[in-house]
Design brief:
Blueprint lengths: L2 H12 L4 H4 L5 E8 L3 E2 L3 H10 L3 E3 L7 E2 L4 E8 H32 L3 E3 L9 H10 L13 E3 L1 H7 L1 H11 L6 E5 L2 H9 L4 E5 L3 H13 L7 E5 L7 H5 L5 E3 L2 H4 L6 E5 L1
Helix pairs in contact: 1-4, 3-4, 4-5, 6-7, 8-9
Length: about 270
């Protein structure tokens, strides 16, 4: 991360009068960062950068995306005791949050049977880059990072303009590098979007049976090839296998970020 970004995080966490750590002499110390449960690690580079800002040497053989076990040492630290404690919470916040996302992403992937799993823009303001990076570490696809990455015509765009007018306007305004994706809720709109030549069709909050019916219709009309089909809305670990069997290419879910639990990680002074 940029130095200015790192220092903003540090300023937020340390404040102006850190008595709790100022009472600790900055004598030489060693410490370990330990996983307290199984998972997939992410945030190694960010945690290392935090410690190094405080002149604490952090060493590890792990990389983002590595499977980790309970009680496994993630980082070995060598530096001043006060500095280690000052860096501790910020570094562990990166590791805990990002590893939680990576772990949940890996679970979705394991149940999807080869269908690509993607995130959404349902992310924490100011922390999106790290949450998207964690999805990648878990083996997922980050989806678009911001509104400029691709054109997505959603239900409210269609309500305001109509599907056909929205697609035509998007094609007129979009760069040749920007793909156009349309969110549909029924078979007729899926067929119309394909006929209008969009790049991606997202089946939004449709049942598995309705998605299969729509894909069959697209195939019968010779419209299936060349279009990426995506399912989204109401997809969980419990039902993802069904959606994966529907014939879509991608399954996107905001749960990777908005519903992921932090991985339990701690630091121990040796």
């Amino acid at each position: 991360m940029l130095l200015t970004e790192l220092e903003r995080f540090i300023e937020e966490d340390t404040g102006y009068n850190d008595v709790s750590n100022n009472i600790v002499p900055d004598c030489k110390a060693q410490a370990e960062v330990i996983a307290k449960e199984d998972g997939v690690v992410a945030g190694i580079a960010e945690a290392t950068q935090v410690f190094e800002y405080f002149d604490v040497l952090a060493t590890t053989d792990l990389t983002d995306g590595s499977a980790i076990k309970k009680n496994e040492v993630l980082l070995t630290l060598d530096g001043g005791a006060r500095s280690i404690l000052r860096a501790e919470r910020l570094a562990l916040n990166f590791l805990g949050r990002m590893s939680g996302i990576a772990t949940l992403t890996r679970k979705y992937i394991e149940r999807a049977g080869g269908v690509r799993i993607a995130g959404t823009r349902k992310t924490t303001p100011g922390f999106r880059m790290f949450e998207k990076k964690a999805i990648i570490a878990g083996g997922g696809d980050p989806h678009r990072f911001n509104l400029s990455d691709a054109v997505m015509i959603k239900d409210n765009h269609i309500a305001a303009l109509g599907l056909e007018n929205a697609v035509k306007a998007a094609k007129k305004m979009a760069s040749f590098t920007q793909k156009i994706e349309v969110e549909v809720e029924n078979l007729d709109d899926a067929v119309l979007a394909a006929e209008l030549g969009v790049d991606i069709i997202m089946f939004d909050n449709m049942t598995v049976d309705k998605i299969k019916e729509s894909i069959n219709a697209l195939t019968e009309k010779g419209l299936r090839n060349g279009i990426v089909l995506e399912a989204s809305g109401g997809i969980s670990l419990e039902n993802i296998a069904g959606y994966a069997s529907s014939g879509v290419d991608v399954i996107s879910t905001g749960a990777l970020t908005h519903s992921s639990r932090w991985l339990d990680i701690s630091l121990r002074i040796m």
